[in-house]
Amino acid sequence: MKYSRLTKEQFEELHKEFINFLATQTITADEWETLKKEKPEVAEEELDIFSDLVWEGVLNQVNYVEQISAHNLHLFAFNDDHMHVIGIKIDGPIDVTTPDGFNWLRENLMDESVTFTQGKKDYSEDKNLDKFKLIQSGSNITKGELYEYMNKLIN
Asked: Please, which residues have CB within 8 angstroms of residue 124's CB and are 6 or more apart in sequence?
């Protein structure tokens, strides 16, 4: 398995897609029930293959992720050959994960307690796996509005 297995809730949401996936594997509903009972390892493998297909489809569409903690923001953009990250560090008691803290940051971007950094990193052999690792480490998929705003501000 390349990524991670979907949760029970995710499988329930993708029930129709999973049925279609099984159909492409020429597995009927009855055969699926038999597989689960008699060859659970094969059924597990099918779940893993489907999970990887779903993740691959999602990751192909991801262009931005962000990781926000109390005093740090890491905003990632995925370009064709590398990822670009904007880092924002806030020294002091401000917690940007709260509405008040985030509003403070918006109004005080040029405050001396706010530090901007940026960098570029080439992808490993697998761009989507790089994206997945960021998501697994707590980054959230976004539309990139915050990244684009900050990128224009500092560049």
From this structure: 130
Shared domain for 139 and 107, answered yes or no, is yes
- Residue pair 64/14 in contact (Cβ under 8 Å)? The answer is no
Which uninterrupted H or E stretch holds 122?
A: strand 114-122
Q: Is residue 2 part of a domain?
A: no
- The total of other beta-carbon atoms located within 10 Å of residue 140's CB is 11
Give residue-wise pLDDT tens across range 91-124: 989 999 999 999 999 999 999 999 999 999 999 9
**19 CB neighbour count, 10 Å cutoff:** 13
Tens-place pLDDT, residues 23-69: 998 999 999 999 999 999 999 999 999 999 999 999 999 999 999 99
